[in-house]
Amino acid sequence: MIDTVTPTDAARAALSAAAGGQAAAIVAAIGRGGAVRRMIVRADGTSNGTLGGAPLDETALRLGRAALQGAGEPAVETVSLGNATWLLYVETHRPPEQLVIVGAGHIAVPLAHLGSMLGFRVVVLDDREEFATTDRFDEDILVRQSDFATDPFADVVLDEHSYVALVTRGHRWDFDCLQRLVALDARPRYIGMIGSRRRVRAAFRALLEAGMSRQVLAGIRAPIGLEIQAETPAEIAVAIAAELVAVRRGAEAGSISRRERVLDRFLNEE
Predict the structure, then answer these.
(1) Is 154 exposed, middle or buried, given 0-12, 13-18 or 19+ CB atoms closer than 10 A?
(2) Residues forming a β-bridge with 134
(3) CA distance 16 to 30
(4) Mean pLDDT of each 10-residue bin along the chain, 270 residues long
(5) What is the pTM of this model?
(6) Residue 4: which of 34, 25, 29, 24 has the closest Cα?
(7) CB within 8 Å of 6: residues ≥ 6 apart
(8) What is the pLDDT of residue 53?
């Protein structure tokens, strides 16, 4: 008996990914007369369904896993099984990229709004009850009160598709958050920290003294944002959002962190 994946099963997997769940590739095998069989291949390596034969299943798994590891463009391949020919079509469904804003102060509000407009699933964390309130943010923003002293990311799943913007109220919290972030198995694609040159230097020096390597520190964008001479909270949020887009699209020019080069200019190896 063929393990059948129904159109409803496939739709549920796609909707789960869109809601922030696990990425999934839906492989549809289209045979003679329009017969369709489906397989769901998930990011954790598991799968559901069979297309009815080892050659089809092996090809479906290969195509699904390749799609999940790549850009996710639809793929098509033809497979012959006995006297039948099947057309395999793959669609990939991924969760939205996640923007985690640490600190719910005056910059976080416009930044969360812009992040949502850019298609991010936005989560805002703060340890202060009066700041971690949903009424300060758009309805689609997830706001959580977090304990910065123990584990600020205890209730957040971070991976290589996450973007983290540290806009806390001081380098003490930056230090704690950065230590947690760089220790993750799957480090976020983007880690940026707000602050003056002095604040960034203090945080970097403390991290170096705590044993963090210069190579790891070099991957942290600080000060955060693109260089547009931003001054107001809204303008600073625009500069940060622009840097998020630049990272997403692979464009690196214009970042403040590149201009300042705090790690190289002020924290040379002794």
Answers:
(1) exposed
(2) none
(3) 24
(4) 80 88 90 87 89 85 88 78 85 90 95 96 93 93 88 84 89 80 84 86 85 86 89 95 91 67 67
(5) 0.73
(6) 29
(7) 38
(8) 78
Q: Are 37 and 52 in contact (CB under 8 A)?
A: yes
d(CA 102, CA 173): 9
Query: What is the C-alpha separation between 94 and 206, in angstroms, rounded?
Result: 37
Neighbouring residues of 120: CB distance < 8 A, sequence distance ≥ 6: 96, 97, 98, 99, 163, 244
The position carrying tokens 């983290």 is 164
3-state helix, strand and coil shares in percent for the chain, rounded to the nearest 5: 35, 20, 40
Q: Six-digit token pair at 195?
A: 């602050």
pLDDT of 2: 58
Rounded Cα distance between 137 and 126, Å, is: 13
